[in-house]
Write the structure tokens for this entry.
Amino acid sequence: MHPILFQFGTFRIYAYGFFIVVGFVVAAALAVLKIRKSGIKLSLENAADLLFYTVLSAFLGSRILFVLINFDVYRQHPSQIFKIWEGGLVFYGGLIPAALVAFWYMRWNRLPVWKLADLVSPLIALGLFFGRMGCFLAGCCYGKQTSLPWAIVFKHPDSLARLNVPLHPTQLYDAANGLAIFFFLSWMSRRKRFDGQIFWLFVFLYSVTRFIVEIFRGDPRGFLFGDLLSTSQAIGILLAIPSLFMLFYIKKKYRRYVDGRS
């Protein structure tokens, strides 16, 4: 579509990087407002450290996984590894290390882990929406060829998608998915029964819906067991199972706690 939003001489603002930044700023701003409203005691120093370590681990993890999946390409052109503004982040590669680092930091500083995880989970889905819009404009994460009436044809020579053929707009599928999960989790946040419910719901819902979107993807992104599963589908399965377990496990602990007090 429009991989370069603005250009002033040799200076360029890439759509992918721009929307990643927008998604981060919007999610971070909403997180600050929600934390203040929730009454969770989180010092400015803790908030800044948590944000820094989480974002850094998410960025590095998502880029490293993308490079590993496309290792043959980057082995021949190692300088391309650093051109992050052109696209090339794997969501799962960022989610898993960021969650681990965030949980470790919160435990170490005795912060309410599940309360904070529930609070930010819908905002991760919202950030995903903006990120996928950047993917759409850049042309990365494109879909398979299709004759469906809503197919998208990429014509810009700098686009990362296949050019001049009708493709599934998988970037928009995933963007709509992120937005739908955001609204659903926001609705559920007002009805949750135990801490941790929203976070594990997010992991489960995204794992399942991303598995489905992957079916329509046409870009090279790594496969396991021949061509049976993409890398993201395999990771999705590995995350969906423990997320269901944690939902039932924490719910059971909560019921025991309530019964013990009654």
Q: What stands out?
A: The chain has a mean pLDDT of 88.
